[in-house]
Amino acid sequence: MVTRKMLSGLVFILVNIGSIAVIAGPKDKDHDGMPNNWEQQYGLNISDPADALSDPDHDGFPNLTEYLLGTNPLDEESHPTLSDNREVFIAYWPLATNAVEVFSTNLVGQLKNGASFNNSAVKLDGRDDYVNFGNASALSVTGSISFCLWLKPEQSYGRAIGVSP
Asked: Over the stretch 41-74, which tens digit does the pLDDT of each residue have?
């Protein structure tokens, strides 16, 4: 069973980036997953790992996701599209009006132990609330994945995301 614990957030994305054999990769001074030359090209700071999660064009996709999918992080019209990237997206919950996943995989999470959907976000108390996706085959990934979500913690209770076998 795959279980995801989340705090309040706006977007929840799982991306399958596959297996990557690295012989000699591009330089990445801040180890944020984006090469220095790409960060410099778009005016990002090669010494700041936090810019991987920033979204300067406000299109809902952080810089790291835009790098991985080959889009421009400064142009809100240049963003990963679901139809063009279906082979790499495992799941995508925009949480715009509900918690329904937008692909045909029907990954609809069940809110457990008091978790609620409130104002385009999943709201959790940070203790025992969670969203359960059951034994969804789409979440059985053998390769590497990138897990992206936005959190707005009201308080820190330790681990925010967990996977149980």
From this structure: 999 999 999 999 898 988 778 888 888 878 899 9
Element (H, E) at 71: none
Per-residue pLDDT tens for 100-110?
Answer: 554 555 566 77
Pair 11, 60: CB distance under 8 Å: yes
163: CB partners within 8 A, 6+ apart: 2, 3, 4
Count Cβ atoms within 10 A of the Cβ of residue 43 and give its class: 0-12 exposed, 13-18 middle, 19 or more buried.
exposed
Low-confidence ranges of the chain (pLDDT < 50): 1-14, 19-24, 85-86, 102
Closest-CA residue to 99 (of 120, 125, 128, 82): 120
Distance set, CA 95 to CA 33, 81, 102, 109, 117 (Å) = 26, 16, 10, 12, 9
- Residue-level pLDDT at 31: 87
Give the domain ranges of the chain: 1-17+88-165, 27-84
Cα gap 91→47, rounded to integer Å? 31
CA distance 121 to 7: 9
Q: How far apart are CA 71 and CA 2, in angstroms?
A: 30
Taking the complete model, does pTM exceed 0.70, yes or no?
Answer: no
From CA 154, how far away is CA 164, in angstroms rounded? 24
